[in-house]
Amino acid sequence: MNGGPGPGIPRIWYLCRPAEVRVGYQLSGMGSGRGCSYAGGMVTADLLQRSIDKIARLSGEPRDLAGYWRECTEVIGSVIPHYWTPCWYTLDPASLLATSHFHEGMAEFPAEWLANEYYGDDVNQMAHVAASRTGISTLHEATDGDPSRSRRWSFNQSMGSDQEMIARLQAPSGEVWGMLGLYREPGRPMFDATDKRFLSAASEHMKNIFDKTGVRSRRDLVGKVFFTHYEPGFRDNERRVLDGQPMRGGPRG
């Protein structure tokens, strides 16, 4: 796919650091001066530290979750060039099931992709990455360099992307409350260890979902998740029983 996303997708923009940025860099074990971007710049200590500091600062400012993610997208894009826009998700910390999706330009997550996420025998699925030791994974790594083995790669290709990197977002308590997906189109440099270290460092400073959803405890969070995402199905099944219809979501025969 050359130059833009698949059919029906708005024009893309590349979130790349400017070519004139050339600073040398040491953060959490990352090496100095790495070359780098679609635009040919270099990531260095000053740029990375300023980016981490800005994410930490944004975390303390009052704004809704989607607005916060928009601001973080701009910061992350200044360090890690990526295709189109990121996928942001909130997860139920107990089940690791996705409870919301935000992707600028994609109003609705495709049903077929969602089915593959939970029914498919695939790699790089959010729940697996969320529960992993590192909490971050690329599709190329998960497939030993052959992403064509993964069905999610074909989904990504239909949108014009080739690479995928997924990272978990954790509350200070260690509970996973969200995920972030970044993508690159064919022919671009591979996501590397420096990209992963920066994203891991940045995610530690991202505000946890309690503050962004107006809840103050895990009990409040679970209650809000249930009444927002599960209570409608709970009530629907009650009505279906009264109408003599089979309930949704039961064991599959």
Please name the defining characteristics of this protein.
alpha+beta; Beta-Lactamase; five-stranded antiparallel sheet; 38% helix; disordered N terminus
TL;DR of this structure?
This protein has helices at 45-59, 65-77, 111-119, 126-131, 139-142, 151-158, 193-204, 209-213, 218-242; strands spanning 34-35, 42-43, 87-91, 98-102, 136-138, 163-170, 176-184.
Provide a descriptive summary of the structure in words.
The chain has 253 residues and is an alpha+beta fold. It has a single domain, classed as Transcription factor LuxR-like, autoinducer-binding domain (Beta-Lactamase, 2-Layer Sandwich). Helices cover 38% and strands 13% of the residues. The protein has helices spanning 45-59, 65-77, 111-119, 126-131, 139-142, 151-158, 193-204, 209-213, 218-242; strands spanning 34-35, 42-43, 87-91, 98-102, 136-138, 163-170, 176-184. α1 (45-59) packs antiparallel against α2. The chain starts with 33 loop residues before the first strand and ends in an 11-residue tail after the last helix.
Distance between the termini: 41 Å
Order of helices and strands: EEHHEEHHEHHEEHHH
Low-confidence stretches: 1-37
CATH topology, by name, is Beta-Lactamase
Q: Kindly report the name of the CATH homologous superfamily.
A: Transcription factor LuxR-like, autoinducer-binding domain
**CATH architecture verdict:** 2-Layer Sandwich
Average pLDDT, rounded to a whole number, is 80
Identify the strand order in the major beta sheet: 4-3-7-6-5
Radius of gyration over all CA atoms, rounded: 19 Å
Give the tally of β-strands.
Answer: 7
Structural class: alpha+beta
Percent of residues in beta strands: 5-15%
Determine the fraction of residues in helical runs and give it as a percent range: 25-40%
The global form is globular
Number of domains: 1
How is the biggest beta sheet arranged?
Answer: 5 strands, antiparallel
**What is the overall number of helices?**
9
